[in-house]
Amino acid sequence: MPRDNMASLIQRVARQARITFRSPAGPAFGENLHQLQQLLDEVRAEDLHLAPRGPSAAAAAAAGGGIPWGGVVPPVSYMHICETESFSMGVFLLRSGACIPLHDHPGMNGMLKVLYGTLRIACMDTLPPAAAAAAAAAPPPSAAAGSGPCHRALYRSRQHYTPASPPCLLSPHTDNLHQIDAVDGPAAFLDILAPPYDPQHGRDCHYYCLLEGPQPAGTEPPGLPREVWLMETPQAADFWCGGEPYPGPRV
């Protein structure tokens, strides 16, 4: 059963997010961010009137009034909760095996809390210009002609997150690029971005692919953290995001 304080919890999260991100350069930002992280860690799927979905639930939801996509169910759906000038908040729902490709959050902070299922999140940083220039002495692996620009980056971590995990955090300079995969079934997470994406103010989303040569059979994957090359790419043809109504308490 949903908890008695479910209506107030997501409202308190939104209120604390507004306090935290209206002055991200202020002296109280660290403490405010910590308080927001603690509140976000309490949120569960039932607080937002969500229940874990079976493999066919996304198709059933689409048939029951979701946005049609040419008869194809989107691999990822988004439930908008609220947005201000300083932050946006919503829920991403991933079908089993779905992936949100490697992408960035220019100049943005972010917080991600798993509501159900298991996510594998790979986090990376673009290297500062001086470090990238030094690393450029080693050219990137060969890529197809006409490919996008390449960037040197630090592959920091690759971890599994569940509802029992603390929120995954990103800042303008740390863990700012990430790839999110649903593991062993559908998954959902609450997402806060501050400030929201806004191409007119230089906060557009860019996608990347990891440039690494084939790994010899029987060898262990390279350790982390490690420096890597990334190539900018268009949004993948098999990735798009649909929309669903948010069923939880009003914010």
UniProtKB/TrEMBL annotation:
Name of the protein in its database record: AEDO dioxygenase
GO cellular component, one term: mitochondrion
Gene Ontology MF, one: metal ion binding
SUPFAM superfamilies: RmlC-like cupins
Nucleotide-binding found in the keyword field: no
One family name in Pfam for this protein: PCO_ADO
Source organism of the structure: Galbula dea
Alphabetically ordered keywords of this record: Dioxygenase, Iron, Metal-binding, Oxidoreductase
InterPro entries in the record: PCO/ADO, RmlC-like_jellyroll, RmlC_Cupin_sf
The keyword Zinc is annotated on this UniProt entry: no
CDD domains xref list: cupin_ADO
